[in-house]
Design a protein that fits this description.
Length: 186
């Protein structure tokens, strides 16, 4: 089973059923899948490469769910940030994981603006809130409107490549090789 298989199945079986409701917004499975594919295409247009980490710092929403499906759809790796951490801890986790793209909502926008210039790995920030798009960030809805739907890479959980950035990478790879030689699951 691949990570987005359940969405494809839901579109086949119930394309016009409501898949997502958030506030005044609701989407059918067909519309939800289209938005996921467009977000995947937008991420790829922002130079997302296979295995790149894409972070989100946001409260739960329909866009958070789209992120959770679109990142593996596009070949990226999910990095949902812990909203209870301090700005310093979040910045450390972004750099340690090698996150290159960050989605942020209105709640955490001031924090991201504060440390955005300090990150060693972030290339792009996408504002996924409902307010005006802050300077230096991409607007979520504008990205989706301009993007072509991206192809689903049909990633399985075991297909996630090891991170390429951040301290501890060599130890992580050595540990994985040792587990592989011993026949152990990660």
């Amino acid at each position: 089973m691949y990570l987005t298989q359940s969405l494809h199945r839901a579109v086949q079986q119930h394309p016009d059923r409501i898949a997502v409701r958030f506030g005044d917004r609701q989407r059918t499975f067909r519309a939800f899948a289209d938005r996921v594919a467009r977000l995947a295409g937008a991420l790829q247009k922002l130079s997302l490469q296979e295995g790149d980490r894409v972070a989100i710092l946001s409260l739960n929403s329909d866009r958070y769910l789209e992120y959770q499906m679109a990142v593996p759809w596009a070949g990226g790796v999910l990095n949902p940030c812990n909203i209870r951490w301090s700005a310093a801890e979040i910045l450390y986790s972004l750099d340690d994981s090698g996150s290159t793209i960050l989605l942020v909502d209105e709640t955490f926008r001031p924090m991201v603006e504060q440390f955005r210039g300090d990150s060693r790995t972030l290339r792009e920030v996408i504002y996924c809130g409902d307010g005006a798009v802050p300077a230096g960030m991409h607007g979520y809805e504008a990205l989706l409107a301009a993007a072509e739907p991206g192809p689903d890479v049909a990633r399985r959980g075991a297909d996630v490549p090891p991170r390429r950035h951040g301290p501890g990478h060599a130890a992580l790879v050595r540990g994985q090789h040792a587990r592989d030689r011993a026949g152990l699951q990660p």
